[in-house]
Automatic annotation (TrEMBL):
This is Enoyl-[acyl-carrier-protein] reductase [NADH]. It is an enzyme of class 1 (oxidoreductase). It comes from Parabacteroides faecalis. Its EC number is 1.3.1.9. Signal peptide: none annotated. InterPro entries: Enoyl-ACP_Rdtase_NADH, NAD(P)-bd_dom_sf, SDR_fam. Pathway: Lipid metabolism; fatty acid biosynthesis. Pfam families: adh_short_C2. The lineage of its organism: Bacteria, Pseudomonadati, Bacteroidota, Bacteroidia, Bacteroidales. The keyword Lipoprotein does not apply. It comes from the Bacteria. Keywords: Fatty acid biosynthesis, Fatty acid metabolism, Lipid biosynthesis, Lipid metabolism, NAD, Oxidoreductase.
Length: 285
């Protein structure tokens, strides 16, 4: 059901790869709520993924761009303003990739060229986007920019690897740029820290299934799914959040404030039971 929350608004959605992508759901929701949008992803993702299918469905144009290329980003913003007929009201950065994770390099054996790529793709691209947009004056007054992040920026999670460093940097950029863009143009910049979600990027995290189950059991409201994340993004793009900026907003069912839950504790003690010998002695735990 639409509430017309984004009626008449224009936006750019980066990072819809397939129908599991969080950006895919955000694009659908934004249009459902009355927005017109452009979509962007890497040329290879546009060729290999299902972005065109989404574009057709939402009557949106796709502007391919490698988000690490300032030139490509300049093209996305200038074309979007042209296509949509004026400066945009919202932007979603839903981009993340770690070559170290892909190549199974552990955090104490990082390849530094790959680390640079991780940081460039997953965090510095956000700075590049904001700098390009500001120079082109491509975001309207009280526009809203959201990037997606993960609680591994604050706490250590097994297997999240150098993406944790990228997310810390991403959140820092939201604050640093948020000050300047807010002061000069009333543009707000926030990050949404999402529950583990089964997507192409999410499934690349080591032990994702167990992480999802653990997070779900730890969170009083359970994990937030991609569609719920899209609802939150739409709210952040809407006029109902005009004074929210420079925040890292947890959208995780309460996970980030928990220490231990009954459900997780019960599951943990079951784990012990699984490893008791015939005499009831714990042999592993
Ligand atoms: N899935 C999760 O568990 C989870 C949890 C918290 C935050 N996030 C974040 O949500 C965002 C979206 O990820 P997702 O889970 O929807 O997975 P996804 O794989 O669907 O999306 C990642 C996107 O990044 C794009 N991308 C990669 N390199 C790029 C580049 N150089 N230029 C432009 N685009 C590039 C990919 O093509 C893809 O569309 C990411 O920032 C991710 O870290 C995901």
């Amino acid at each position: 059901m639409s509430h017309d929350l984004l009626k008449g608004k224009k936006g750019i959605i980066f990072g819809a790869l397939n129908d599991m992508s969080i950006a895919w759901k955000v694009a659908e929701k934004a249009v459902e709520e009355g927005a017109t949008i452009t979509l962007s992803n890497t040329p290879i993702a546009v060729r290999m993924g299902q972005v065109d299918e989404l574009a057709k469905k939402l009557n949106a144009q796709v502007i391919p761009a490698d988000a690490t290329s300032v030139e490509d980003l300049q093209n996305v913003f200038s074309k979007s303003v042209e296509i949509l007929g004026g400066p945009v009201d919202f932007v979603l950065h839903s981009i993340g990739m770690s070559p170290n994770v892909r190549k199974k390099r552990t955090y104490d054996d990082l390849d530094y060229n790959m680390l640079e790529k991780t940081l460039d793709i997953s965090a510095i691209s956000f700075h590049k986007m904001l700098q390009v947009a500001k120079k082109q004056d491509a975001i309207a007054e009280y526009g809203s920019v959201v990037a997606l992040t993960y609680v591994a920026a604050q706490r250590t999670f097994f297997g999240y690897n150098d993406m944790a460093d990228a997310k810390s940097l991403l959140e820092s950029i939201a604050r640093s740029f948020g000050y300047i863009y807010g002061r000069e143009k009333n543009v707000r910049i926030n990050t949404i820290s999402q529950s583990p979600t089964p997507t192409t990027a999410g499934n690349g995290v080591k032990g994702m299934e167990h992480l999802m189950d653990f997070a779900n059991k730890m969170s009083p409201l359970g994990n937030a799914d991609a569609e719920e994340c899209a609802n939150y993004c739409v709210m952040m793009f809407s006029d109902f959040t005009r004074k929210v900026t420079m925040q890292n907003l947890y959208h995780d069912g309460g996970f980030s404030s928990m220490g231990m839950s009954l459900r997780a504790m019960n599951q943990y003690s079951k784990g012990f039971e699984e490893y008791t010998d015939e005499n009831g002695h714990i042999i592993y735990g």
